Amino acid sequence: MDKTSYTAMIVEETEKNIFTRQIREVPVKDLPDNDVLIRVLYSSLNYKDALSATGNRGVTRHYPHTPGIDAAGIVEESRVTSVKKGEQVIVTSYDLGMNTKGGFGQYIRVPADWVVKMPKGLDEKESMIFGTAGFTASMSIFKLIETIRPEHGEILVTGATGGVGSMAVAILSWLGYSVTALSGKTNTAFLTHLGAKAVIARKDFLADTTSPVLKPRFAGVIDTVGGEILAAAVKSAKQNGVVTCCGNVASPDLPLNVYPFILRGVSLLGIDSQHCPMNLRTRIWKKISKDWKFDFIDSIYEETDLHGLNEKIDLILRGELKGRTLVNLN
To answer: How much is the pTM?
Structure first.
């Protein structure tokens, strides 16, 4: 490749526990020595990216660093026959953007076994509107609908205005499920646009949750926040209900007893999209590219470039973003 430098967001620790973010040119040769060099066209902003961008050592151990757990683009160089120059590809999860330079730069170099070939029906932009958030929502839905059908009843989605939650509302509604959205924000119009049949305020949902079990209401739940909201959701599940859990922004602790499990047969399924096996990963991306690609995808995101990321990072940390934030690296 002729290009010797590229533009990226660089997060540096300028003093002890003081981190700054700059957009600047960096050498291509400083990328890690991995199999596949990709020219990144689009990325997206996730909560984990914001943590990495503010010096959270639980996400990123060493700085300077380029965050971005999502990337979609074109293969520029490959040392393996399974991935070819010129192919359109997606990279999400694994260690990208955590301790490996990520998608908030115009180039990444990653192991070949992190690379997903772009499925027919998606392009780089569309794949990053979904991104890790949409993939995590889809993985949750994949698990949920193995046993729960639309006729079984309501599906609750918590944290519904966030990236994972909003994508879950949109996909489930597109698939014919009756979705109830739970949010701490007053974004009823946004959620009903995504297809939610009802919207519950967080404070109302948690008004009386001290009982071992609550009135059975939901056939299934996609929880994105954890903590007492997840506990109340499990308690509110109907007989043989299915609850998926993929986040802990509210709390990693789960104040819950065993009664929903032994009296109602509720199943609680953990979702780990970071280490999803490649065979399942490709199956889910194919679902996203076909049956689960809802026709109002253009209304669920805002677009920014690298220079606009600082503001978006601050907003997502304050819980003031809704939907998806697409990062254009062209």
So the answer is: 0.95
